């Protein structure tokens, strides 16, 4: 979609007490967004209270009266869904952590800036806003439909939805090695493919939730294993990576009403030709929802996964930027890779995937009708294909490793050690789940826990298991 078409749709509020900067930024953005400005926090808050709802707010940090963080805290009470960005020449670490842990500030951007990079970053902020909005609708539909379809009690249903939200929130906070939110984007693409396949709404809901939670098993696995492309892993590292599927199913098996989603996730690394894992299933042995999730997951990894060497050079920055030209090239290459490896994916799913991309707005997509017709002519694409039913299955039992000795510790956050396993979920002072039960603590997670504890956001006493290897 051209910028001129988006200007009336993407609303940006710019707040800066420097009127020269305000005028400059307004001119910079006027061809890209529908821009409103305010020369102080108080004026901006008046606009919001009067009913103006921007999709993104870009605020300077150093302003008289309310500073940027203080202003955004007040703005968050009025427009909680708006994506909020701070533009500053310096960042105070304590204020920074306060903003992030309060889920208020989405990004901190440094002065001076490059115009093209600033516009590109704000484009990503708008993408995040609309992606979150769409996924909120998915979760709301999931909540309503599961109550009707599974005839859960109100309390059981409430607990399940809350569990989904908490699990997804924790996944989202640990997807820093992607240019765009991985689970969200995969869920949107997978649902679009499912719609094209004609899946009924109840199965689309299962597919959406499974897509949002498909990487829950990666929590607690070392970044040295989950950040590099899985194709580069060998030996024990490959085995540890493949264990994330079993861990994910174990998580969901404990949630009433999530058996079907667990089944989809259990199969989402199986491939149509039988070369996947963990069981080497093939063709109609794999649920159609898992085949859809497999392709959507692969496409996003091919395009938006940050190269490991680039990520490890700066793992703690707020964002990595993917230039539009490079993004377009990666999209084109990803489509070509999928076509060249179509034996790994369901022909029916590949066909639906092509239709979804052709009808989208990606700048990299070429006319793929010829390639799709070749799938039919060379015998790889049946003109009619049945959709395997995911009903009536028994969720696979997960083999568990034989454990050695286990010692329970009740300690403060500062006493936790790498390799210990959380014996209970850890919640923040605001009630958000930070660490699920059964998570193995790695170095980065330990550092984050201690930072939160130093800010007084964690309970004083936590329970962890120290486990030694069995024979």
Q: Care to give the gist of this entry?
A:
With 471 residues, the protein is of the alpha/beta class. The chain has helices at 3-6, 19-29, 41-49, 68-78, 93-101, 115-149, 154-172, 182-197, 201-213, 223-226, 235-253, 259-267, 288-304, 308-313, 324-340, 347-358, 369-377, 443-454, and strands at residues 11-15, 34-38, 56-60, 83-88, 107-110, 403-411, 421-422, 426-427, 433-435, 462-469.
Structural summary, described in words:
The chain is of the alpha/beta class. It has three domains: 8-113, Response regulator (Rossmann fold, 3-Layer(aba) Sandwich), CATH 3.40.50; 129-377, Orthogonal Bundle (Hypothetical protein af1432), CATH 1.10.3210; 403-469, Molybdopterin biosynthesis moea protein, domain 2, CATH 3.90.105. Helices cover 49% and strands 10% of the residues. It has 18 helices and ten strands. Strands 2-1-3-4-5 form a five-stranded parallel sheet, sandwiched between helices. Strands 6-10-7 form a three-stranded antiparallel sheet, with no helix packed on it. Strands 8-9 form a two-stranded antiparallel ribbon. Strand 8 and strand 9 (433-435) form a beta hairpin. The longest helix is centred in the N-terminal third of the chain and has 35 residues, at 115-149. The termini are far apart. The model is unreliable at 1-7, 97-102, 361-376 and 378-403 (pLDDT under 50).
């Amino acid at each position: 979609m051209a910028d001129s078409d988006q200007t009336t749709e993407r609303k940006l509020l710019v707040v800066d007490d420097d009127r020269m900067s305000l005028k400059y930024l307004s001119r910079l953005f006027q061809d890209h967004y529908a821009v409103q400005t305010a020369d102080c926090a108080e004026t901006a808050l008046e606009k919001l209270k009067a009913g103006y709802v921007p999709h993104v707010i870009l605020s300077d940090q150093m302003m008289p009266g309310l500073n940027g963080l203080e202003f955004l805290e007040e703005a968050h009470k009025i427009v909680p869904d708006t994506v909020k960005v701070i533009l500053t020449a310096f960042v105070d670490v304590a204020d920074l952590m306060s903003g992030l842990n309060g889920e208020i500030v989405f990004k901190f951007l440094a002065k001076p800036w490059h115009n093209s990079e600033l516009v590109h970053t704000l484009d990503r902020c708008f993408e995040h806003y609309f992606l979150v909005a769409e996924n909120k609708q998915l979760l709301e539909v999931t909540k309503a439909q599961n109550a009707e379809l599974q005839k859960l009690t109100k309390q059981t249903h409430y607990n399940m939805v809350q569990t989904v939200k908490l699990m997804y929130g924790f996944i989202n906070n640990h997807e820093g090695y992607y240019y765009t939110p991985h689970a969200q984007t995969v869920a949107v693409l997978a649902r679009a493919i499912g719609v094209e396949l004609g899946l009924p709404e109840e199965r689309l809901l299962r597919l959406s939730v499974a897509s949002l939670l498909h990487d829950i098993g990666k929590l607690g696995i070392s970044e040295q294993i989950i950040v590099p492309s899985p194709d580069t892993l060998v030996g024990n590292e490959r085995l540890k990576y493949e264990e994330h599927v079993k861990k994910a199913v174990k998580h969901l098996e404990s949630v009433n009403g999530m058996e079907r989603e667990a089944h989809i996730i259990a199969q989402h690394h199986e491939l149509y030709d039988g070369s996947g894992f963990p069981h080497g299933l093939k063709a109609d042995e794999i649920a159609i929802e898992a085949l859809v999730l497999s392709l959507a997951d692969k496409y996003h990894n091919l395009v938006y996964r940050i190269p490991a060497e680039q990520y490890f050079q700066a793992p703690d920055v707020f964002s990595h930027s993917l230039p539009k030209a490079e993004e377009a090239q990666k999209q084109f290459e990803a489509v070509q890779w999928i076509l060249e490896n179509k034996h790994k994916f369901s022909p029916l799913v590949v066909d639906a995937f092509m239709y979804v991309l052709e009808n989208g707005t990606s700048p990299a997509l070429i006319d793929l009708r010829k390639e799709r017709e070749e799938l039919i002519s060379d015998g790889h694409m049946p003109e009619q294909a049945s959709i395997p039913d995911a009903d009536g299955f028994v969720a696979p039992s997960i083999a568990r490793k034989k454990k050695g000795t286990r010692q329970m510790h009740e300690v403060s956050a500062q006493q936790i050690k790498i390799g210990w396993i959380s014996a209970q979920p850890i919640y923040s002072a605001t009630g958000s789940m930070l660490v699920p039960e059964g998570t193995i603590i790695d170095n980065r997670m330990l550092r984050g826990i201690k930072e939160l504890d130093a800010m007084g956001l964690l309970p004083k006493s936590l329970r962890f298991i120290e486990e030694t290897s069995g024979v």
